[in-house]
Design brief:
Length: about 375
């Protein structure tokens, strides 16, 4: 069982609704990451018209039955820097030869990351996920010492048992294995995501917590597929059509469209694995909705319809930016959309599931 599947099994109350004889699951999804049941090929198929598939807003309003989806870690990178010269020498003596040549456990990648001298993919039996390890060392008069060991992988695709397998391989080349990364490692990248089932990204009205550079990508038909806040080199947010992304890779996800909201933290404010359960909510302040709310109280009646027309053309974020010289109105309009947040987008409720999601992954647990 993958970690993603384990997380989903923890959501015991799942709301299902029959539409035209099919069953749709709201709020959770078990097929969007991690080892899944065999998927049908998309050979000789065309990309579905996602704008004509059922969405949550088409269903009867029963917010009390819509459970908050579970967040999950889509990627993590941890860098280990030995604290003593003795440990640095020991790690190099264990690690160097294994990363020098290919073996059943290690396969060469194209080139190491900047600042590193060796790089391999770690092959784990029964798992498609290939954790990546990059290694930097330094030559001193007293001998060669390990400088940094970086490991990057998707823990949601490994789960607890996959992480145990990774720990086993790491223990053969690094004293303490994954446990040493937990105690001494520093998180340099953390991608935290949540999947919204039955929500179409092309219909979303979105606003980031603070003003940021925005980029949007559409498909050949002009329909929005990906929306990004921030620069890719640093921390940023991507909201994208996960179903379309998987389709392009040859994987057909059953059921309604899945929109993924992903916070890519480079680096995260929380840099210790042992403190992940206490990290601040990365989704806080993000406004997502699919409908225009009623006009706020006060102001000329014609202003709100004009603003809503601007939203249809530029999106919520773009329309609000036009009000930069009128901060009071910008704040009022933003708050009006925030009040219209649908039951499937509640950052506080989503983040309340974070400790349980981490526990299911076992990423900060003792593995011996």
């Amino acid at each position: 069982m993958s970690g993603r599947q384990a997380v989903i099994l923890m959501a015991l109350k799942i709301y299902t609704k029959k539409i035209d004889g099919t069953v749709e699951v709201l709020g959770v999804k078990s097929t969007t990451s991690g080892p899944a049941a065999p998927q049908s090929s998309n050979k000789n198929q065309t990309l579905p018209d996602f704008d004509h598939t059922p969405i949550m807003n088409d269903l009867p309003a029963e917010p009390e039955k819509v459970n908050a989806p579970f967040p999950f870690i889509d990627k993590i990178a941890v860098v280990l820097s030995p604290k003593t010269a003795g440990l640095a020498a020991e790690i190099h003596s264990w690690l160097y030869q294994d990363l020098l040549n290919d073996s059943n456990d290690f396969k060469t990648v194209s080139k190491p990351l900047k600042g590193f001298k060796r790089a391999k993919l770690i092959y784990l039996s029964d798992y498609e996920e290939r954790p990546r390890i990059d290694y930097a060392f330094t030559v001193t008069p007293s001998g060669t010492l390990a400088e940094r060991v970086r490991i990057e992988f998707n823990p949601s695709k490994l789960g607890v048992w996959g992480l145990k397998a990774l720990h086993g391989v790491l223990s053969s080349i690094i004293p303490g294995g994954w446990q040493l990364f937990i105690s001494d490692g520093k998180i340099t990248r953390l991608d935290v995501a949540v999947d919204l089932v039955g929500v179409r990204v092309s219909k979303l009205l979105m606003q980031p917590p603070t003003s940021q550079a925005t980029t949007a990508w559409s498909n050949a038909k002009g329909k929005l597929e990906t929306y990004q806040w921030g620069q890719a080199k640093g921390s940023h947010t991507q909201i994208y059509n996960k179903t379309a992304e998987q389709f392009k890779k040859g994987v057909v996800l059953p059921g309604p469209q899945v929109t993924r909201v992903e916070r890519r933290l480079k680096p995260p404010a929380c840099k210790q694995l042992s403190l992940l359960a206490e990290m601040d909510n990365p989704f806080a302040g993000i406004v997502l909705t699919t409908h225009v709310p009623e006009a706020p109280a006060g102001g000329p009646e014609y202003v709100w319809p004009m603003f809503c027309d601007s939203v249809k053309v530029r999106g919520l974020d773009g329309a609000l930016k036009l009000l930069s010289k009128n901060k009071a109105k910008k704040t009022a309009f933003r708050q009006q959309f925030k009040k219209a947040t649908p039951p499937w987008w509640n950052p506080d409720a989503i983040w309340a599931n974070w400790p349980a999601a981490l526990s299911a992954l076992g990423i900060t647990s003792k593995l011996d």
